[in-house]
Amino acid sequence: MSTRTLAAPAAVIPPAKVSFKAQMLAVREDAIIQAVNRLLAEKGFDLMTVDQVAAEVGIAKASLYKHFPSKEDLAAAAMVRVMQRAQAFLAGLPDHARPLDQLKAMVRWMLTLQLAGEMPSLPHHNSSLRTTLVGNKAYLDGLMQVSDQLGGWIEKAQADGSINKSLPPVLVLYTLYARACDPVLEFLKAGGQHSDEEVIALVLQTCFEGLNAR
Amino acid sequence: MSTRTLAAPAAVIPPAKVSFKAQMLAVREDAIIQAVNRLLAEKGFDLMTVDQVAAEVGIAKASLYKHFPSKEDLAAAAMVRVMQRAQAFLAGLPDHARPLDQLKAMVRWMLTLQLAGEMPSLPHHNSSLRTTLVGNKAYLDGLMQVSDQLGGWIEKAQADGSINKSLPPVLVLYTLYARACDPVLEFLKAGGQHSDEEVIALVLQTCFEGLNAR
DNA sequence: GTCTATAGACCGATAGAC
DNA sequence: GTCTATCGGTCTATAGAC
Lengths: 214, 214
Prior knowledge:
The structure is a homodimer. The first copy, chain A, is mainly alpha-helical.
């Protein structure tokens, strides 16, 4: 990651060589992060071992530590990637849509990610992991940007009357974020009575419409 | 536990002695379970060590294994206790209330338990733990009874029009259960802007009323 | 004196780190 | 590929009850 930002200007060092090395690093790092992401989604942080990551990528465990100094940093890198994907998704949304629909689209994206087994699950407890995440600027920046975007839509949606004005915006934001680790998805999927699309539609409905009849 | 069910009739063995030993065992078992429950709520299963449990109870680790054959069984015992508390709470509810209010009362109870730091948090991943739980009759029985009770109220609430009839009852049940590990509580509490009672009221509202304006 | 339960050392495995 | 720490689980010497 830092190799790219610290790379010398193209005029000083032949761009092809630097770009090649950088590409190599980037490609392998991406493979690592993808493996970490998948394993985090499948087993969670605690049950994921660094050996499994190395095995899945097909490299030596020691090579992992050339890229990431600890298991916590591996998880953080996966979260950074998720944030980048989230930002990319948000950037691709049509900006003329209703704020409520933007929010629903975002939640739908998170639910889809979770059902696809690509949503990392980190334990809320575990102080070392939290410390690493809080100290990761890329992650925090991504989280802040996403939160700002969503927060803006929330306020707009409350202003236009589509979201309950009496709810604190931060509650709405947290409630949306919580869908990223909603166990209801897993339960419903395990029941086998509904397709993925139905599961998503149901959870979206309970999230925005609630359980009460209208 | 089996000592009591296998105890000889009072006429054969002095009841005081048996009762004393049994009481000792029961009291200590309860202390163990209480400690496990607290540690499970505070740190989660993976970060809880049996040494910590022994230290908190004030007994030797080996003594723990006189009562429970494994760490997983410790967690299961804590869950059994939670289920018993849930059943006791349900039994204490006025049976003339509206089904919707019964459900809300139950969710409120779960949220209160969580805020009090008494709701064990178990990792959904972790096959050995799941195996132990599935094999624990007391836990399964408790879960089934609670689910039957809630399921009955859900159907009644849908029949009387207070809960959305288009939602599968099992979705409603899972959505209620999910409040037991809702990260929104933790987030809101960390924000420090709301009292516990406000947090509970807000989460209850989003759960039943949703985020949309009515 | 015997028997049980305890305390605390101890072991083996596993996983993170280098 | 090794080193070390940690943790789940066991073993043994001992203290205290009867």
